[in-house]
Specification:
Order of helices and strands: HEEEHHHEHEHHEHEHEEEHHHEEHEEEH
Radius of gyration: 21 Å
Number of helices: 14
Largest sheet: 7 strands, mixed
Helix content: 25-40%
Distance between the termini: 12 Å
Oligomer: single chain
Shape: globular
Strand content: 15-25%
Strand order of the largest sheet: 4-10-9-8-7-5-6
């Protein structure tokens, strides 16, 4: 029996309503969460305060690539919690070096600049690119520009929303930071035309997640790589959502055989336990950062490094990347069958999918509310699109069940 009313509000008297009411009163309304209050999780499943289980097909926007309470990740966190959690970077700690060494090796790079949140890592990459442009490329002081793509989502700091094309994220937060030039996503000719002597970097998501899992046309990333190489411009790949196994390869760029100059990582790097992010690049790029020019009190803390190192260890065998690739083919086959049956378009790569619904049928929010009542957690975006991003640990039968529930929602079966 459903625990929500037709508007998606927890029913009066439910345990969920007991928790939602004070949260709505005391929490700033920067989110509009689905009306479920989660209390525990294991693997791909979570349980709410009323005791009902749900299959988590959002996975913390890919922060939970390895599921809830993965035993190797929780063991790493628990062991480190009892030893040392924070030193600041004023001192060395015994967990940072092995983490950075092995993450750099996984990425085929030299150095890691550890941060905490994804937005913080993007800001760091922008600073690095500007300093590289002044010191290595010879751009005139305060003239550096970064090319970005329309429809991007790189975070919500003041600098980042300065080049957002989402009015909800941008409106009311000016004045905006200069130094960015926006081009259409997927249009390599427009990108090349935007490059000039002041261009220091191209900042792109290899797959645009918040925009609805938009996958660029074939050859686009290689064309970006070629332009950046030819024009002596850094290619910065924001792989915060797309990286670390989500798309069936370690990085989304791998599917196109492309290596950027800089990776920006986050979300899954913290295993869904602690916020961990990083900028990963070569010596010639990151050596422009020197003592005092950038920092983070919590970046590279021992707890974060211990969990991040455990994540890197999970990815070294390729098991999770292979699971995402194989199960992604299964997911795509099921989702394609919904086109013309409530869905108008499907985009996917690995275990990451964006489904455009017929707006005459229902909104994405309405679809997610109906999935909630069927025991599936998903997230809408841009009106009539929903996203699926289950943990890479999901089983084939659980994936099939999820698709059955989505089919039931779109065809009104059992509603």
């Amino acid at each position: 029996m459903t625990t929500t009313d037709t508007h998606g509000t927890p029913r009066s008297g439910s345990a969920a309503q007991h928790h939602v009411s004070p949260a709505e009163t005391a929490t700033a309304h920067n989110y509009q969460p689905l009306p479920v209050v989660l209390a525990s999780g294991e693997g791909a499943w979570v349980t709410d305060v009323d005791g009902r289980r749900y299959l988590d097909c959002l996975a913390g926007y890919s922060a939970l690539n390895f599921g809830h309470a993965h035993p190797r990740l929780t063991a790493a966190a628990q062991e480190q919690l009892s030893r040392l959690t924070l030193t600041s970077r004023a001192f060395h700690n015994d967990r940072l070096g092995p983490f950075c060494r092995d993450l750099a090796e996984l990425a085929g790079m030299d150095l890691v600049l550890p941060m905490s949140t994804g937005a913080e890592a993007v800001e760091t990459a922008i600073k690095v690119a500007r300093k590289w442009g002044y010191e290595r490329k010879g751009v005139a002081p305060d003239r550096a520009t970064v090319i970005v793509a329309d429809g991007n989502f790189h975070g919500r700091t003041t600098t980042i929303v300065s080049f957002s094309s989402d009015p909800v994220a941008r409106d009311g937060f000016g004045p905006f930071t200069p130094g960015f030039r926006t081009v259409p996503y997927g249009d390599s000719a427009a990108l090349e035309a935007a490059v000039d002597e002041n261009t220091v970097a191209v900042l792109l998501e290899p797959i645009q997640g918040e925009a609805g899992v938009l996958i660029p046309p074939p050859g686009y990333l290689q064309a970006v790589r070629d332009v950046c190489t030819r024009e002596n411009v850094l290619f910065i790949a924001d792989e915060i959502q797309s990286g670390l196994g989500r798309t069936g390869t370690t990085f989304a760029c791998d599917a196109d055989g492309v290596t950027p100059d800089v990776y920006v990582l986050g979300k899954a790097l913290g295993g869904g336990i602690v916020p961990v992010s990083a900028v990963v690049s070569r010596h010639d790029v990151l050596d422009v950062i020197r003592p005092g020019s950038h920092g983070s009190t919590f970046g590279g803390n021992p707890l974060a490094a211990a969990v991040g190192h455990a994540v890197v260890e999970l990815l070294r065998s390729g098991e999770y990347q292979a699971r995402a690739a194989a199960l992604g083919e299964r997911l795509r086959g099921r989702l394609d069958g919904l086109i013309g049956r409530g869905a108008v378009a499907v985009r996917s790569r690995g275990l990451w999918a964006g489904i455009d619904l017929d707006p005459a049928l229902m909104t994405g929010r309405e679809a997610c509310l109906r999935l909630l009542d069927r025991g599936v957690l998903a997230k809408d975006t841009h009106g009539s699109t929903i996203r699926l991003a289950p943990p890479l640990t999901i089983e084939a039968d659980q994936l099939d069940w999820t698709c059955n529930q989505l089919s039931g929602v779109l065809t009104q079966e059992g509603n």
